[in-house]
Fold these 4 entries.
Entry 1:
Amino acid sequence: MAPELIWLIFFLPLASFVVISFVFKPFLKDKPRISGYSTIAAISGSLVLSVLVLLSVIAAPEHELLMPDINWVIVDGVVIHLGLMVDSLTAVMLLVITVVSLMVQVYSQGYMHGDPGYHRYFAWMSLFTASMLGLVLADNLILTFVFWELVGLCSYLLIGFWFHRKSAADAAKKAFIVTRLGDFGFLVAILALYASTGTFDIAELHRLAITGALAGTTLAWAAIGIFAGAAGKSAQFPLHVWLPDAMEGPTPVSALIHAATMVAAGVFLVARMFPLFENSPEALTTVAVVGGVTAIFAASMGLVMNDIKRVIAYSTISQLGYMMLGLGTGGVAIGIFHLFNHAFFKALLFLGAGSVNHATGTFDMRQMGGLRRAMPWTYATFVIGALSLAGIWPLSGFWSKDEILASSLAAQPALFYLALATVLMTAFYIFRAAFMTFGGEYRGGNGQPHATHPHESSPVMVAPMVVLSVLAVVSGMANVTGGFARLLGHGEGHGFIEGFFGILAHPLPWLSLALAGLGIFLAYAIYGAKWLSAERIGRMFSPLYTMLYQKYWLDELYENVIVRKILLKGIFAGLERLDNKGVDGVVNGVASGTIAAGRGIRRAQTGQLQLYGLVIGIGILAIVLSLYLAR
Amino acid sequence: MDFNYLTAITFLPVIGAVLIAFIPGLSPRGVRRMAAVFTLIPLALAIIIFVSFDRSAAAAGVIQFEEKMRWIAALNAHYHLGVDGLNLPFALLTAFLGFLAVLISWKIDLRVREYFGWLLLLETSILGVFLSLDLLLFFVFWEIEVIPMYFLISIWGSGRKEYSAIKYVVYTLFGSAFMLAGILSLYFTTGTLDMIELSQKGLAMVQSIMPASAIFFFILTAFAVKLPVVPLHTWLPDAHTDAPTAASVILAGVLIKMGGYGMIRLNVSMFPEVARHYSLLLVILAVVGVLYGAALTMRQNDFKRMIAYSSISHMGYVLLGVFALGQVSLAGAALQMVSHGLVTGLLFAMVGLVMHNAHERDLRKLGGLARQVPIIAVVFSIAGLASLGLPTTSGFAAEFLVFVGSFTSGIVPGIKVYTILGVLGVVVTAGYILWMLQRAFYGPVLERFDGTPDADARERVYMFAMVAGIMLVGIYPAVVTDVLKLGISPIAGMLGG
């Protein structure tokens, strides 16, 4: 494929952003729909081109297209080759991003209908998609970092879309700063890699890591620095705290952030730099351990949340942990395969949450219930997404999750048990959400008149959910015979690539299916059939429940203890006192000292000749005396 | 060269000032227009020489557009102006901000003639500092600058303006006294005041009446006050905060860059050996400045003071880049100065607008302004994001070059650790910038700011001009670095790093 066409994948949504911001918004203020159309048209174009890229990558030798570079000299000695890297990883990511983004944009036309910021919304959504596409196309670390930060910026803008709400502005700021903490590691890693290799080029760095020219502690620290950046963006423990708050943005934004853009960026980065991790056992273990811990840690918090978006948000963190675990134990193909499947069912679940919010005016599941009758399409598609997330055969989530379980069993048995326990929790929390939202009787929504009789969302919102639910069923087929693993090239030999039914000949899938089934059954018993009382269970495990509901007090620790008490009121306040009283005090002290000295010495100037004469006399005497003594 | 471009650029503003002062019956409108014309022409000329500047590799270290004539024969002092890659970007930046400062000052209505007179004199003195290649001339321009700034702060300022103005003067003169001693020692040692000659000769060979390191620190003191280097910084928050908007823009935009420029031009290029010897000390001071400045910024509640403190932190990166002594780090430091001039200039201009239009500068009382003044909010956000080093803005290009250059520089021991500590500063920067944005512009809309006017047409002109500059340097930094490297490569060659 011509490189110009591939550049176009990135430039189409960018052009949409520019046109909306500088033409539509100022000049077509009262025709907001055109912004939605422009975004959808641009992303459709990128989608078509992405499919073509995927086809040519599949056909290409080594599954990689070679692209020419443009030299981008910043200053003598720092030369950047600006170019594209188009391999199988890029092609898969392009497809995921454009498909999910397109569905989200179509849906947004209904969800954002009538919002005064409609133009602004689609402008930023276009830029968001463009940045993410740029990130997966970049062939060097500087360009990667540029798009990486732009993805972060767009998340900031979209999470804070309703900036007049304090909670939204807070959430946006938190997302940016927490991810920037990770970016610090990434930036230092880039510096360290450049200092020891003299290149920012990703393919070159791969080569150096594989040949062993780049090795030892430098490689390990660089890889861990890169992973710090990835952990920030992909919300891994302990940098996960921004993601649950990020639901302050419009729900379709959450769908995009949680499925295909922001959080996918971190997993993608580790996959992109995988040869560095592969050749550094310490770094690879770090990835696996952090991923495994995050998976169960986040799932446990998802068990008790009452806000449907929060449940799904913790689910995202947990699933991202799975992806990292997959990368850390099984390689690129296994981690990315889960990203690929997860993107479709997670976007679907978020769009479903947005749909019920549209009908009920709330995200609190305690005010929902019974929506299966009023919203049959939303109900059906949500359940498909939930089954896929829970990993029920033969839906997509099953295929990738069991690959991860198998690879972790082979590489890190301890992490395997964490991942297995997470399977149970996942099935429980997502079906808890499903039963609370769609089961039982309707509990009145937010109490507003339009919420008393909830009804199904408009076709423009339902259609994307239907498309995504089909994908949530079938996307796992991509690897049933190992096609996906072969395409990505790193995953041969792992998992059970034994066909649609062949997989059921193994014990592990039965174990995970049994746990998932148990989770669904428990959710049914408590929230569907109500055989057990949720309140009673909550009271029985009261300290545990409080700990989970308070999110292990981590937000409290970060925001109140570290930022407010230790930094702002502690160290920073101390430095401020030092500056005002100490440094500036010395300056003002010198000034007032000079004035005081002047005032003192002025007293000597009495104007009395007798005194002056006396002093002169004493002076002469002193000089004569000293001359005499010195002789 | 028939036309004396540099003389014209330098002295046109002061000619404007004289005309404004002496033409009788000039209306305030006439004064403003006159000031605009006499700053726009130097800007146009500066653009012409920037465009026609020879960027070929052969031009490295070559002085272009040179003007030299005997000035005081007894002292071997010359009227000597010229541009190489190092000072040209700063001259252009000064001319640019000088013109915008006039537009920014359009609504000044107190003692209009006097105000614009001082403003134009200020521009001439700064241009003179950047363009002089003779130490005595350099020093004269350096000293003249204090006078207009004193009056601008103490008459048109706000808050404790007299205190801040006199503090600024005393601080500057304190530094200048040392610099004069340094310049005299140099002159009596070498018999020349020619800056280019001095840096090419190499002072190590010259028999000195004073240790070279003493001269180095004499001169450095003046620049360290100006940049500023912690702990010589406490004049800055007061002066920046209490100055009128345009003076803050000039102060933060170009005036403090005289310090960084002087360090490269005089300290590093004339005393490479001494600079190497003391680089570790200065790099540590740089990192302290970055973190200390950022920490203090987090504690401010005054909108303007917050930006003032952020400058201390950002100038720490300049000091880091300069005394990491690598070719790339020096270029990064110079680019950071250009970038900071645009970015912080814009931030001060925007804060000035908010203060003027909303009559409030306390961040605890501001809020929700994005609804009432969307254009100011958007432009301020762009400037803020540039300040925190977001890619595609000049802030990223500059800081990244400083980091890459410092990290890979082999001269200073342990530089990697110091650079990493400096990088940590960008996290705090993100914290205070976003917090500031939130406190001023986001959150619930406040009724008391209903009816606050947004930027008018003239204000949009200067803000968009600055945004364009920020994005241009951010996306295509070579527009500046191509010029800078010609001035820096000879210096880096002497350092051998």
Entry 2:
Amino acid sequence: MTSATTGRRSAALLWLAVILALCIGAWHKGVAFDTSVMELLPESEQQPLIKRATEQLAASYTDKLLLVISADDELRARNAVRQVAAGLQSLDSIARLTWQAPPSDRALDELFPYRFTLLSDEARVRLNSEGGAAQFQIALQRLLNPLSGFSLAPLRDPFSLYTDLMLSLQSDLPVSIDNGLLRLTAAEQPSYLLSLQLMADPFSLSVQQAVNAVLEPLVKEQQQRGINIRRSGLLLHAAEGAKQARSEMSTIGLGSLLGIVLLILVVFRSLAPLGLVLLPVLVGSLVAAAVTLLLFGRIHLVTVAFGAGLVGVAVDYALHFICESRVVADSTIRKLFAGLLLGLISSVAAYAGLALAPFPGLRQMALFSVLGLAAAWLTVVLWLPVIGGQRRLSPLPAAQWLDRWRNGYPRIGKTSWLMPLLLVLGLISGLVIWQGAARDDITLLQTSPQALLEEDRQVQSWLANGSSAAFLLVTGRDFEQLLRTEERLQPLLASLQDRALLQGYTALSQVLPSQQRQRENAELVRALYASHWPALASILHLSLQQVEQAQALMEQGTAAVLTPAQWRQLTTSQPWASHIINGADGEVATVIRLKGSMSAALKQALIELAAAEPEVEFVDRVGDISDLMSRYRSEIVDWLLLAYTGVVLMLVLRYRQHFWRIVVPPLLGSLLTFAGFLLLNDGYNLFNLIALMLVLGIGLDMGIFLSESSDSDHTWLAVSLSAVSSLLAFGLLALSQTPVLYHFGIVVLPGLTLTWLLAPLMRAPSTGELK
Amino acid sequence: MIRRLVLLFSLLVFVPLAAVADYRELEALMATPPSLSGRFEQVKYLAALDTEIASSGRFAYERDREINWQTLAPIENMLRLTPERITSEQAGRVLSQLETGNNPVVALFSDIFFGVMTARWSRLAEHFDLQTRIAQSQWQVTLMPKEPRVQQVVSKVELQGGRYLREVVLHEVGGDWTRIRFYDIQQ
């Protein structure tokens, strides 16, 4: 006795030491929360260049916050821009504000030396027919125009090819300059752009709070004056996600905790068991958070929100202990041990299944849950026998009441119609499920409210920004080869534009033609001079010397080929940096960005276009993620079947021919729930299936404990309590605004309820202590 | 001719006395017909060549809707401006077409051209500082760009007229200038 007690004591102390060590370790490392939506997305399984390109394109969205200010009246809109800009000055240390047009682009003149080799598309077309007669006419017309718009250089560029180049470089810009402000040309109402370049991590809670503290009052103030402000930027979504997680933690999490507290008060008519029930939960959550932090460096808020749900299952172990200790005098733990262990193993298996999901966020959840469960279990096994010393051997009224209710229940062995009914229900459900379709929609991963998403989409479409998730990746040995490939694609893309499939595109070769193309251009210019320069010169009354001077300038200019290395030195290359992808081992690639929305027809056309060119790849991350979700969905279906098979084998080993009493409630509950879900919704997804794994895990717990205790009424009470607390913990997720959690909760809620209601049907005649 | 000299003389006399007036006074002085047409004579000075090129032709406009600028000599060419686009035509064939909607430079150019040719002062006041001198029914306006971007298109504009605009001188950054005189103006 004493040696056993000492052993117990030292084990409990050792566990305390482990907990303290982990918590101190995590605290020392620093507590950091993650709220990024991106963290919920799977890591790319694709080749590194594609991954790099995606990251590079996403970065331009990640660290920018855009505001568009619109009003019915230009003047009011401009005033609002000035007020908001003044208000945003206080964010100086976090973000750099741009709201005025930059001083005129004199830097563009750096392209003047290349006026004969970098021809605009339009000029190229004109030079390609009739020896450039049309270009000659345009040059004359520009000479005679009251205003040329660009300064004329009658000797250095008499055919105003540079003007054409400038016009084409500046066309299709979504932003024009109006009174020194940046005005969106595509918006119907007068609308102006303000851009904040974040210098801090948009995922950091403190940055989000600092920005929103300034931004939100400004937006409200302007809205009261009838001015519309639309916003776009990752920070907003991250902040919204964090806000939602926080609010759901405090509503759903708190609600589930309060429900459990109330449940215990009603059943035990005392607050004492509450401490015993909550202690393992508390320790479990603490250890889970500490280890997650130690392993991942930071912990996702969704993980914590989910961890709040962990409460429900961890409560089980303590409940069994307390219920059982009311009727069994000593060594409660020894009696319970087999059931507790089997319960832990089945729940851990169910949770660990989450790690199969391709999303790092879900993996973290899986780790968190498994660790939390294990730690809570250890706490029950090691601490509760030591602390829960004061025993009151008195049966609980709730147990008797529940048992009476259960005895009024039909049993499968005694009621002849029950078996066929359940079989028929199961078969019908099976048929419905067989017919059911999957819906692997990326919007499931969206955590932002619809209004914010629409606001964002509107801003991005005004800016003619296509999705950064769909683009063409062009690879090659060197720049020259890349650019030539791009130039081969250009007419194909132009035809997609003509068919109104593609709104537009930007490609590096539009501003930096291949050297081959530049030499062709030079040839065209020489032909133009040969056929039209004498005529133009005579209209300009040029002297022979001037004619020759212009000719010499042309010879010099056509020899000026712009190399990629020279181009990179020019300021005009800066906005194009995001189009160039540098691989780890010196590879180069370019990105052709697509404007507008991605239709199915366009997608098909781009896939075909890329298939014809070995060096071109069509990257569609949204499609990839949907594909990935569907792949993992089918994998989880396999995993579920495997899990049921494994469980049946395990149960057969221990319970022989009675195994079905344990496995049928979660199986039938799952089938009915899933069929019902499919009838009410237009498709199932990954997260519904993960919920079914949880139903299996908890349902097994239930059956195992009931069997281990030979269906005693106090076990039935404990099982019922844990079912209700799990419902409170997971079922409440059906109220979540986060689609992932909602789709989880909406299956867990009916699934667990049905499992609990089905369990008493399957029981063998009770041989428990209060028979 | 004598009338003109008298006018010029009266201008010289009255200039120092005339206050810098608001453009609203100009609007009161000028006729703003829905459409107008006439002849123009233009001299363009090209600084790079230190030479002047003369041209002439006809113009017609419908207020806020279209300007047709038809050069007849030394070559034939039609420049058609609408708020949406600038089209250059020769013998009915379109040489080039520039959309104001997708090109800020074209939009600015069109804005200035419309503003100057149809004397839309409120429009011009968005881009320029106006210096106005009014003497009796005659007026002189100098426009100085407010922004460097406008400066790139035109560095200074001098306008004068009475009921109608009579003369415009457009100065460009490189030293080029264009002087246009209007004749035979008909509503």
Entry 3:
Amino acid sequence: MSTATLTGEAPADTPAARRRPLRPARVVLHLFLGTVAVGWLFPILWAVLTSLRSYEYTASNGYVSLGGWTFDNYLTAWRTAEFGKHFLNSLYITVPAVLLTLFLASCVAFVIARFSWKLNIALLGLFTAANLLPQQALLIPLFRMFTQIPLPAWMSDSELLYDSYWGLILVNVAFQCGFCVFVLSNYMKALPHELYEAAMVDGASVWRQYWQVTMPLCRPALAALATLEVTWIYNEFFWATVLMRTGDKFPVTSSLNNLRGEFFTDNNLVSAGSVLVAIPTLVIFFLLQKQFVRGLTLGASKG
Amino acid sequence: MSRPRTEAEYLARLVPPSVAGLNRRSLLAGAAGAGALLGTGLLAGCGDSDSDSGAGSKVVSVGSNQSDPKPKDVTAKVMDGFKTSSGITVNINTVDHNTFQENINNYLQGKPDDVFTWFAGYRMRFFAGKGLAGDASDVWSKLSGYSDAFKKASTGDDGKQYFVPASYYPWAVFYRKSVWQQHGYQVPKTLDDLNTLGTQMKKDGLIPIAFGDKDGWPAMGTFDILNLRINGYQFHIDLMAGKEAWTSDKVKKVFDTWAGLLPLHQPDALGRTWQEAAQSLQQKKSGMYLLGLFVGQQFNNDEQDDLDFFTFPEVDSTIGAKALDAPIDGYMMARKPKSEANAKKLLEYLGSKDAANITVKNDPSTLVANTSADTSGYTALQKKAAELVGSATEIAQFLDRDTRPDFASTVMIPAIQQFIKDPKDISGLLTSIENQKKSIFTS
């Protein structure tokens, strides 16, 4: 791409070459950037390409060939893995988990940022440190706990926290809160103190200061976090696989496994399934790109 | 994000998010809608099972790993058959085959379904021994049509039955009849015959034995059959149970023989899946392939009749060629089913010839375990496979089903792959297997 234009310009620029001593470095830079971009895009494009070809064709001609175009993989994948149902399951888990995470994390962040008491730093440290904990290490204790905690039958047919959406929502909320608290508290600390003084003079309660002063101001941070969290929780695969037992309740990421056969795996079909599963994250990303990128740098500088 | 600069800007920001900003509004509205959906959806989704766990209930649940479209369909038909004969409704919980298998420990210690699909052999005995499976001995007293080999494969270490076999498939050497006719090949009876045949195939421009071990498990079949032919069934089972030493001359001979056959195998096997190896057979590039009956999945419908097989030839005439790998799939009962009576009734039905008949009618790729079933619907290949297993003196279950799962996956897969990569250092490899075996089997 950019390398092509560069080499194209090269002959015309020869008289000016002395004025641009950085030229070779720029060529190298663009070459590097081009290679990295291709390196990142290649697996995705390859998956899309593979998903559009029939297994029979690639089996006999190999994957380094062109032809055998078909859209059947998508139809078959949607049908055999029952994606419709599983997308709904993902929705049941992701939406409440994100809303709950943001609400709880903003509460904690508000307290940490706006009130000074002895345990402020310790509390923030606790939440941030929890980020570093490998989730897998907690698998067995969590599994045992979940199989011991009863739920009423109207909440889950398993009558346990194990194998229920509630359990998965809780797990995701617990693991995502740390990061959100960290980001939100940094953001809230940067809000001007005068706002709160004015609010107090007007007689606003703590709740009002939180809900009507802080929250609206935090909208950019919340939007960025919501984008990230939706992607992360939606992509979460591990907990759904170990804490669920009923195949019909798996979220879409775990149900992707349905496309693997007992002995035989049709890679073209799996590619089609993966592309389908990736679409929601892509949609979210393109809709909310701005927030997404901002979300990555939110904790980096105050404000 | 910029700070509000004017009062108006600041006030504008106090407007609740749900009313401000078009883009964000639609997003939040969507989220709120989904939330509302969730409120009703979750409750509906979760509350649909009024699970009356009383003894008189007419419901039984089955955990099934039959996630491939065809077997899934057959399972549903068999369960329907049970419903019409008994009036008890079956709730099938299908989890994809691999996840089900990897999660079995969690699954059984959590809250398993009343009846679940599982495998015969060590894998069954392991969980039965841990008290995670229900005793099905009184179901067996009502079953008929099973050979002793199948009953033995369903029996735990304490002598009770914990398993009801449903289907099985043999491992054998597959070939295309048309290719063999074209070159005039004969089925080899001994290892020497096999070697001669392989050399001839090489001359004819064929790869004698297709081979792929990217996934780690297919080559276990080669080890199994060589060990069964060279050292016999009992030694094989004892070796798998950790009772025999891997460093013994007997095991060394197995690997030596295999090393002698490796030049006849398709090279670079570690980069090839069994599907790709099977395709080389299907495309007539290879002469034969040692695999399970499922190799037929890689053949088109019109090529199925061209597929034939023979059991792996004899190596030692005192041992013969009568033992083979034929993994048996079937059903087990949870340790504390919600309704034991219903679960047992279901097991009894699953072991009956009625259930077997439904399977035969609907799935041409499996063999049913119940010998009294009507097998007139079998294809020629199925008939031959059933005869082969029927005439077998002993049936092994396949390496990863005959030994501890952790030993099979963490020790044997890398060891066999190492051997295929570098077949020279056999004794070093065997010492390493033996050391790892000791630490795993004593733990």
Entry 4:
Amino acid sequence: MRHLVIRNFGPIVSADLLLGQVNVLIGMQSSGKSCILKTACYCAWVEKRIELSQRINGFGTGSAFIDRMTDYYQMAGYVQPDTYIEYETNHLHFSYNHSSKSFAMKWNSGHWNYRKAKVSYVPADRNLVAAIPQWSSLSMDGNMIEFMSDWDKARKFVKHEDDFLGLGLSYSYDSQSNSDNVRLENGIPLKLRESSSGIQSLLPMYVHLDYLTQRQYEEDGAKISYEQRDERKNLLSTIYANLYKKNATQGNEVQYVTVEGIDYAFSEDKHAKRFQSTYRRYVNVDHSEIFLEEPEDNLFPTTQCQFVNWILDKIASHNDMLFVATHSPYVLNQFIKMAPKGLSVMFTHRVAKDCRAFTVRQLSEEEVHEVYDNGVDMFFNFEMYV
Amino acid sequence: MRKIFNLLPECFVDTNLIEYLLDAAVNHQHCCSKVVGALNSTFAEGFAVGIIDKDKVELGYIRECDEIAKTAHLTLMKHKTRPQYLITIQPAVDRFVLDCAITQDVDTNAFGIPSDLKGFTKLSKSVTSNTDSRFKHLFAAIKDHAEIVALKQTLTYLNTTQYEADVKELRLLFRQQAAAGATGAAFG
């Protein structure tokens, strides 16, 4: 369960969303789709930061919560005097009220069941990394810089992709020249920047998502900073103090386990194992939470459908969360047709005619079936559900 | 608002007009080939009614239909084998609505809608014309026009009876309007 409430932020006057494992958002241009996607992504990241540090981590200082978000996404103009954002999962609940500049957080019953997520936002302008040779020196917002950094990591790790999406194309990364290369179906080699706009849009998205949904789990443990090491020690001692310490010396035998150089005492072996398992869930990435803008960019409709099938298959192995904003009926209909578990379909719409304020309507499961069974083109008929 | 999924109008003003007449949301398709596609695939052997302009390339689907009745602007057809109906508007909905306004002595400019075909068509092609209240007000002013009444009664009858719809009764509905002496509509 993931509950997101947004009020008076950018064009969104009100949104109250229950997000599932696969979420598809449609709506006209400038109606707040990216605003919702970015807010959801930011909240997922805040949740991760709070869970890993076991404290509110500076988000509680005045308007720090909204300032960090708007700096990162360069959306300061979206903030209104009564902006309100609320986010809840099984693990925690937090809210930010800009009128009182207050941030509140409480743990929920599933607090200790947290599983670490890799949170990633894939922006619509992702093809910059393919089209512009010196993309790493461009001045961009934090979101794009983060994507560029993730893409750089993904391509260096993935190095090679054969026949991606069954299109007969292969990709390789040459570390010596730091270049991306494509081999076409007819065997002709091209630099990525020389390839078609479709490949330039698809490939960075494909390689990055392949890394997020599969390859990252094949990677050896990365080096961690001193700050991260301190954070982990704090996390270990917090988990221990809250779940195991009071029973640690009860019973006949006391067992010691050393984690990250510190000894922890347990009365029972199963407690020691559970403690280590809980800690591993916090420090090792368990799944990805992917926020994806317009996957259809520059793609032929059948490729759009192939992409949807592919990504649904990929996210199934680690129960990744996917939140997609799209303008494509092919993408929307393919998601509905494939009917993945936890599918949520929603659209932005004006609060009133000729009004620039938007809200979001989420379709019920029955309504999603109704749309599919009756061939309703949601892009032309969303008023039906307003 | 009530939803009628098996009523498939093709253009924005058709959608607005039909939603006004039936006081329900209908399943708008953004071109006539989409209407036919929905009739052939989504509804396949099921009951459905398509409403399209006549001025387009003649669709193969029309050749699979028999004509039931005709007015100056409207032709009602039934598919030879399926419980599906098609209403074509001749030459197109914009001319149809303007002609109805003329015979009802209604000035469309009074509703903020141009009275010349070019201006009317330009406005009616806007994507918001399916919800534009100016058109709703115009439809209210011309709702008693014989062909508008025939369209409303036919759609209401079809939506009510669906698989049990009777071709003779449908033909009668059109002729009753002719007999009522409504102006401006030539009935076949």
